[in-house]
Amino acid sequence: MTEKNLLMLFVRNPELGKVKTRLAASVGPETALDIYLHLLRHTRDITQHLPLDKVVYYSEKVEEDDIWPATLYLKKLQHPDGDLGEKMKAAFEAAFAEGYTSVVIIGSDCPQLTPDIINQAFEALKTNEVVIGPALDGGYYLLGMRKLYHDLFQNKRWSTEHVFPDTIADIERLHLRHTLLPYLSDVDELEDLQANWPELS
């Protein structure tokens, strides 16, 4: 069976007052937007040269002329209904329906993410059913799988420290072969920013 890999990037449209709202409470909406644009550019820079199919899923509307070159990234809209889990599940479902054999999703909040770690994820999926990149705040920055496991997206307390442990509990309950990537830090709060980019805080 031919391997067909897809990297999905979930991003928010960079609009004032709608991104990094927890961070904005500390630094103000304008600075929060600047930081989010910085994160988006980082995510583009580490993914654009990866030799695999890539799709950017926008939160509100597809942007034709932005930092994501249409020559390198397909562009789609996140599923309009439901919570983050429903939106991610719909994206995985679409990818497997299109014939992809290994699918990885990342967000745009992780300044420590590198091309090597993304490559590690796809390498891990050659011998595992699931790969997950845990974030220090209790969430995850990457999730990959070889087929859709609905349970991983259901009954989760999104944007809390329970997401990663609850997801791992599902993976173990389903007896799925899995591997963990390195623990990395997301940028959601002022403390995360100070730890990752002190020059921006």
Automatic annotation (TrEMBL):
It comes from Pontibacter indicus. It holds the Pfam family DUF2064. This is Glycosyltransferase. It comes from the Bacteria. InterPro entries: Nucleotide-diphossugar_trans, Trfase_1_rSAM/seldom-assoc.
